[in-house]
Amino acid sequence: MFKKDYLYAGVIGIVTAFFGRLLLINNEVSLAYGSFSLPLWSLFLILPIAEFFAYIIASKLFSHILFLKQLGRFGIVGLMNVCVDIGIATTLRRAYNIDPLNITDMLPVLMLASSIAIVNSYFWQRMWTFAEKAPPTRKEFIAFVVVTLIGLGVNTAVSFVIIYSVGAFGVLSADRVLTISKIAATAVSLFWNFLGYKFIVFKE
Question: Where are the beta strands (DSSP E) in 14-54?
């Protein structure tokens, strides 16, 4: 493991903290347990440190198993992308006061948030998760986009199914319904994305 891996884990933690903070603010969730609470700015300390040490532990445990080592990195990057995706989606929904049950208005929001997350994902998956050393090519990027778009299609479809299933009851706020849908959708598409990136896009 190289020193730059520690740096990458820390930087990813900072990015995760920024968008995770937006996610919590938009869902009106605080970092509180009973009478104990933390300010949201503490995420900028907690997440970088947590991901830094999580990577150290994972890299030690799986130092001789490349697949699991890559899966660990993929998980760290994946958590960041979930926060980027949901943070942007909920912020845009709030900014334009969009009803999450309105497909016409919500689709551009979901697509834009996921597209930004895709670009962010390509950068980190290429540079860190799969440590691709060859210069990027048009063929590689097209393959990445195709694999990601399939995952995005699955992600968007699952999002709408959850939004309509949960939103129809009207017991949760719009942002919480949207957040639940994006978390569930990401969990479903995550498996496809990892295998697609490893065996199709960044195959050795």
Answer: 31-33, 36-38
